[in-house]
Structure formats: C-alpha cells, structure tokens
Design goal:
Length: 233
C-alpha cells in the first residue's frame, strides 16, 4: 500500500469523523428543544403570565375597593349614629362618603374591564395549553429517536477515532504533517481523486506526467489546487 493510498484512507476517516461530529452537534442542539417546541412553551408561558398579571391587578383593586367600602361604611355609621351634631362635621362626613363611593364606583368599573380581559386571557391560555400539550407529545416520540441516534453517533465516533489513530500511526511524520496542513487549507480534502485527467478537487486538467508519477506510487500534486493526487477510482 502506497503512502498516498494510506493518506487517502486517513482522509476518508477524517471526513466521516467531521460529518459525524457535525451531526452529533445538531442532534445535541435539537435535544435542547426544537424551535416549534420552544415556541409552544414560550407562548404558553406568556399566556399564563398575562393571565396571572390580570388576576393580580384584579386582586389589588378588590383590596382597594374593600378598603374604600369599609371606610364609607364607617363614615356612614358615624354620620347616622346621632353623635355628630356639628353641622360642618356632618357636611364633611357626607362629602367624604360621596368621595369614597365615587372612587369605589371607578374601581368597580376597572374590575369589570379586567374581568373581560381575564376571560380573553383565559381563552388564550387554554388554547396555548392545548398547543403545548400536542407539541410535548410529539416531542416525546421524536426525542426517543434522537437519543438513539445520539448513542449511535457517539459509538461510531469512538470507533472512527480509534481507526484514525491506527491509520495515522503508519504514515511517516513528514507526510502526515503535510497532509494535515493541506487539509486545513483545502476544506478537509488534502488528497484528491482524478477522473481520466481531471482533478475532482478543482476540476482542472492534471498533467500526464503528474498522473504517471502518481500511478507509479510517487507523491504527485494537482497543478491547479495543489492537492495530492490519488489516481484510482
């Protein structure tokens, strides 16, 4: 087996390692949650948050309304208790009661508006809950397949890395260094095959002399892209 053939086999392993690593990265990213699942969860969170916010506003207004009514009742009790005989004090109490009742009426209107908004928010939350439930169910099935693929990729990568180590160990240090430098510059393809007299790496014509040298087992290069020629189909 020629050194170029060894380099070509090493390259095949390296390319598969690259592909498997890329796919594993995609799988791991998807396992964090695909976009449609994350969107469904986010929309449900937003719907729940909106409803909770409206409920909190309503509760705050109800507490304020309760306080105003309590003050108005207290003032009415004092006004009609017979203990207040001063005309000015009675007038002040009447004005206070009217003011408290007006404020309470305004808050009641706000509470009614909030109740309408809460009905809409409740509907939106229910719809978002249904969508999210379907998304979670779909994800349960799909994630099983992804977990299985993740395991298969990890096992395959481990074997490929072992093979790569074995293949690299039989290549001389200078050739290995040249191969790795070329691979870095040429997008991972340091060794290129030829078809008739055409380099499959850059689609340029390779000289007959270079092809002859390559077929004799010598290291030869494409004059167009500088890759090492592998003259076999």
């Amino acid at each position: 087996m020629t050194q170029v053939h060894q380099l070509y086999q090493l390259q095949e392993t390296d390319l598969e390692i690259r592909d498997k690593k890329q796919r594993l990265g995609e799988v791991l990213q998807t396992l964090k949650g695909p976009p449609w699942l994350l969107q469904a969860r986010a929309e449900l969170d937003t719907a729940v948050s909106s409803l909770n916010s409206l409920q909190n506003q309503r509760n705050t207004l109800n507490l304020e309304l309760q306080s105003l009514r309590s003050k108005a009742n207290s003032s009415e009790t004092r006004l009609y208790s017979g203990k207040v005989v001063n005309t000015k004090e009675m007038s002040d109490l009447q004005h206070e009661i009217e003011s408290l009742n007006q404020r309470a009426a305004g808050i009641e209107d706000q509470v009614l508006e909030l109740m309408l908004l809460m009905e809409e928010a409740e509907t939106q939350k229910n719809e978002a809950t249904a969508v999210a439930a379907k998304a979670e169910e779909r994800w349960q099935h799909e994630s099983v397949d992804l977990e299985a693929e993740k395991t298969e990729l990890a096992v395959r990568l481990n074997r490929l890395l072992q093979r790569r180590q074995e293949q690299a160990s039989v290549v001389d240090a200078a050739s290995l260094r040249e191969y790795e430098q070329l691979a870095k510059k040429k997008g991972g393809t340091a060794v290129t095959r030829i078809r008739v007299d055409m380099c499959l790496g850059c689609r340029m014509t390779v000289s007959a002399n270079n092809i002859k040298q390559a077929r004799e087992g010598k290291k030869a290069y494409c004059g167009g892209c500088g890759r090492i020629i592998y003259p076999y189909d």
